[in-house]
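User: I'm curious what two different proteins look like when written out as structure tokens. Can you demonstrate?

Assistant: Sure. I'll show them one after the other, since each token string lines up with its own sequence. Here's the first protein:
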Amino acid sequence: MDPAIKDEIANTIKSVCGTFTKEYVKHYAISLAKFLESEAKEDNPLKLLRREKPTDDLKSGYLTKEGGIRKNWKKRWFIVRYDYTVDYFVDEKAATKPKPKAKGSMSLAGYHVRENIGEGLMKQAKDLAEKMGIDVGQLPKPKEYPELCFELHHSRRRCYFIECATKEEKNEWVEMFKTCCRNAWGLKKHDKVHQKAFHRAVRETRWALGRWGWWSYGGSEEQILSDIINDEIEYQTIGKVYSKLSGPWIIRNTVRNSALKVIDTMVSAAVNPAWAAMSKTVDEIRPKLEPVIKGLIDPMGAAKEEIRGKIKDAIMSVLEPLIDKHVNPHLSKIMDILKAPVKTAYDEAWSIVQTNVKQYGETADLKDPSAGFKKLDWVARSYWTMQPATSKLDVMYEPLWLLREIFSDIYPWSLIWNSQDEIRQTSDDAIYTFEVKLKEAIEKEPGADKAVIDQTLSQVQALYEEDSNYLSMKVWRTILKAIIMPPLEAVSNPAVKTLLDPLDSAIPDPMKEFISISDEFSILLNDIVDSCIDAVLK
């Protein structure tokens, strides 16, 4: 970490922060305009009702956790909250006090679960040895963990090692923690406009740095911004640090860890004030922008249509050959993998809903129908209850994985898990709709017999079929685009850049803050790919 390397790192931090600031502020205004436009024409195609977000704890129980500083093992009472954060306490009694104080909390956005710790640690060490130019044979044997352990892993944050009492318990908690890793809300600001703008700014910043393809970040705003910067330092500078290291593994690794601490300190010192300034800026400009945007919604819609037409005229001669090469030849083959599993999964999910509703009907008291709802409410939220349906999607993994030879950015489990979440959500919507409609039917006809349960279930089945047909199309489209879009964007964005740049002048002056040519190109590109997908789906 000589002065020249520190200066290089400092310049990288300054450059990334500067690029991100510009992109975030720009896309905040654009996202605000889109949000206000969508509010003016809100349209929900789904027929089933959706319950308010539950606030019940999702799971609790004793687990044994390795300490973060002292590497001793202690039994702790874990509680998974409704928002997928995890608190742990000294024991169950401490968790039930009037003002319980958690021993610790986990926010798992950006983490993943390693079920086989030894294998994961060995791969991690081998990857690092390769970067540092060390013979793998010099690596020390990784620490051994009991079979019933698993790891909550992050490449740059604290990792958690947890042990369960039984194999069944491990299976349940692994699935619960996987769900937490996928769904934990990392961003501190929950505003929809901020969320859209922030993630778009992440993507645009990476593209500005020449980093194309698939990636995923999770965590708070400061953590994600730090991760982008650390990635760029890894690309540009860290090899120079490693090249200066000498001696056996233990010495190199110790010096490397010291260097990373210096880098982390430099990154944090820049990111925290930079993000605070960005956040303050957009909070101050929003009240000024909203009335301006609302007055421009209609003319802005017309201007966007006209701009997309000009973009289309300018780029189609370049874009069409790319679509023919990177999209059209693959859609039917991918669809062959997706079609049957998704349809079968939705059908099986309805069968599970139907079975549980009928079981409810066997003991239901129609004078107080809500008394049995609590058990129904957990049907879709239970991994094991829904597993016969969601597991129907697992068969997609192998054929999707084989597609990595063509599409290197495919991560099949991520696509499958997101689709499974959609199926669980639809099942929960069906159960909630049944509960609401059953109570309405009984209120209309207080003396109704149990035939009203079957009648209500038939009504809900018709709505479920409509929604599942619509959502099957959505799942297919989402997976197809997740596979197709990254390599297409990687070749199309650079190819059309020089054609798009002159079109900035086509944006009317009052709307320049709220319309982006790159954003409109992205919308147009998505529309074109959607039309290719529609042809296959039909």
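Here's a second, unrelated protein for contrast:
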Amino acid sequence: MRPTPKVRPSNYKLPASRPLTVYAFDPTAGRRLNNYMTVAVPYEELQPGPVGARIAVIDYDASNQCYYEPVDLDHPAVIMNGGLEPSESDPRFHQQMVYAVASETLRRFEFALGRRIKWKRHRGSKDDPFRNKLRIFPHAFQQANAFYDPDLRALCFGYFQASAEDPGDNLPNQTIFTCLSHDIIAHETTHALIDGLREFFTKSSHMDTPAFHEAFADIVALLQHFSMQDAVLDTINRTGGLIYKAQLPAELAATNGKAAIIPELSEDNPLVGLARQFGQAMGMRSALRSAIGTPPNTHDLDSVTEPHLRGSILVAAVFDAYFTVYIKRTRDLMRIARAGGALSAQGDLHPDLAKRLAREASKVASQFMNICVRAIDYCPPVDVTFGEFLRALITADSDLLPDDTLGYRGEIIKAFRLRGIIPENVSSYSEEALRWCSPDVSGRPVPPCKGLVYDAVEAEANEDVEKTARQSKANAVILTKYAKDNAQALGLVYTPGREPNINAFSFHPIHRIAPDGRLVVDFVVEFLQKKMERLDPKDPKSPEIEFRGGSTVIFNRAGEVRYSVEKSIGNQSRLESQREFNLQSGYATPAAAYQDTFKIPARSFAAIHRGY
């Protein structure tokens, strides 16, 4: 007998990413503008669903009480084709799409923050197989809605029939799947990510807080449009580089002032519209929302309270700054183009110039995405306002890039100022005044925090669960003691043996590379406090509300406090403002007229999104 040959052990390396095909916008765009785009999702071994280490797609349809066949993205037939081809009728592609877009949105956040993100803490059974995962239900119910459910820690996407009278580009009564809208998936995933980063931003305690949640989710979804090079290039060619135009001009001049063929029709700009198919299917004849708001009006915030409408003011401010920076960065190119003949009298661009402008638009959008996401770490732990977000934006960006040679921060400040967004407790709109400061600067010296372990991110990446747990427990003990010893300097209220206590709710090391090559290592901590207060302090039988406070504290590698962003639980004006907000919210509910007792409404993404 011949000896059995020895099998050499394999040394194949796993791929860094998995290519998956998705809609860049939604099914109504067909194959135009490279609407069939490939997303390079970070590679991981997947169970049918798909179910990975952090995302679980569960295709249960509650309206029809059935499960749909789960897609197996590790099947050879699927892998060899780069995933399934886009299909409105195949639930397995729907599962692939929500997994791919959610994974890509998660990747962008983690790149900007410089650390691995955890979803909101799960308080269910330890036997739950999806305990540490974000659940996604692509066909959760038959309704014109999609939302993030914090209690389930799940994204729930609905499906519904388009308007019979005015369906836009859809067929009358066509079935519309919200899980096939790139914008809607990115929007809902962003809600889940913010909930993991700042869990108490879902608690309505100020009119800006729910509006911020909606605005930030729209900002992330809209900025992702500008990473789609073919769509950006087409828009640049049709607008002469003015990518902020709400309408794309017709490719040909109309015959006798009236369009005779399709090229003589103008179109909506796909880059600035959010969830176009959904908006048209609801009979709105346009996208659901837009990056282009009303002209700057410093009085809008005085009267607008609905979360989406109020949030649109913040969205408009961010995109005002983005488009202004893009124009400033490409102004020299346009001047050279005019002088050199690359720009015709009709505004047509030379192909090389158009590609150069498209790259610049994508680059600036990516930078704005990073600035906005990083700012979350510099926000207070509760009750965030638009003005505080402005201060967080300026602080986060100047922290990483002290010299703002391209004027990004100046344009952000100007855009926020023109929208009437006024930060509290600052002397002016200057960068120096807007940046958060350390307790030392404010006259409250605080010693460094010694003994913090900064390599928890590396341990987690290596899946050393026991080591990570030990480090986290040790950090929690150190931070809690430190906060109690230095409560006043950190904007906290503490008396030994009395409420409210201090909770080191979350703490994360941050590793970032600055544009000049510097490695920036910090440690961001949420210290939280809570006490129960009567809605009406004069009535002992009135409902109780949770009054929360705390501080976001950022330490450097030496344990020194760099910034302390405070929302003191001892601030009486905050308490009165929160009481008034809850009263107004309770009386504004539709059921208020039919209830014998006053009831404070719970924060619900489902209810807010049902209003579109």
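A detail about the second structure: The chain has three domains: 17-197, 201-244+291-436, 456-570.
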